[in-house]
Amino acid sequence: AKLTIATPTPMCKSASLSDVIDTSETLVQHHLTKPLVETRRIDHEVTIIPGRLSFEIHQNEDHTIARIKSSPTAFYFSTWTQESYEPFCSDFGPVNLAGVVRFCHFLGEKLCDPRLTKRHLVYYCDPCTAYVTNTAFLLGAYLVLVEKCPPEHAAMIFSSDEPTPFRMFRDATHAPSTFDLSLLDCFRGLQRAVEAGWLDYQTFDVEQYELLNDSAIADAHVVCPKFVAFRGPRDTAESERWDRDPQQYVPLFKHLQVSAVVRLNEAATYDASAFTSRGIDHHDLYFDDCTA
Questions:
Q1: Distances (CA, A) of 133 to 3, 75, 202
Q2: Structure-derived torsion over alpha carbons of residues 57, 59, 60, 64, reported in degrees to the nearest 10
Q3: What is the mean pLDDT of residues 20-27?
Q4: Where are the alpha helices (DSSP H) in 56-116?
Q5: What number of CA atoms fall less than 13 Å from residue 277's CA on the CB side?
Q6: Pairing state between β 53-57 and 120-125
């Protein structure tokens, strides 16, 4: 059975976003598309932390039960986190930062649980390649963020199997991917964010991240202190259910100290004066949908 993950208590909080964005809409209940049906097998444990933590792919529930019976001193566990990614097109991951931080706290609690100090922990997942790759990313992220392992060390752990059970992460389009990311690329990205002071898993505000992330509230992400990505708004008269009027973003952007908006979609989607009249510069840099 999959275990649920409790929300970690944030150790530091910024000003509440509920004061500057409308949270009255019901949260969107996303219907996840199963990303990839291709499956791969790892016939042995992959050691994550020697003598303490391993990773396995289990083909089905019977496989898990058989492993538990054959290794009664081990502790087998899993979560839904590796299955939580919401694809836009043919993309399948990696899991977002809220999922990464939750997973780091969850795994740290398991490793520090006094009831499990004398047991070897085995994290397992289903054989879908998307889930396998996201699991490897999550476990490697734990090594980089919590155990302070070099990204190259974390990536090497998952590089010994041929053919590899892991996929390259791809861009969010249905077209053939022209820019892939490896596990090592992702681990190096996390390490760079830590070095730049942009990410600390202990103080990362999961609640604020998920509030901004929700499509019914903002559909925005603070990528770094100087860059916010958000879903392009539309004028109210043409809006679909989850589109937002540009004026609704103004209080949020003022709160985040946004000074300029760069629109990547058609100029007809909204009147730029919604931002410029409130002191926010506006620029157009058009790209076809799913190409930027």
A1: 19, 22, 24
A2: -50
A3: 44
A4: 61-70, 97-112
A5: 6
A6: parallel
Length of the chain: 292
Q: Which of 80, 83, 112, 85 is nearest to 96 (CA)?
A: 85
Instruction: Say which amino acid occupies 48.
Output: I
Separation of alpha carbons 92 and 17, rounded Å: 29
**Residue (of 78, 75, 104, 183) closest to 136 by Cα position:** 183
For residue 272, give both structure tokens: 């730029």
Instruction: Specify the amino acid at residue 201.
Output: Y
d(CA 218, CA 39): 35
CB proximity list for 139: less than 8 A, separation 6 or greater: 48, 53, 55, 107, 123, 157
**Digit-coded pLDDT (tens) for 233-284:** 988 755 566 688 899 999 999 999 999 999 999 999 999 999 999 999 999 9
> Whole-angstrom Cα distance, residue 112 to residue 109?
5
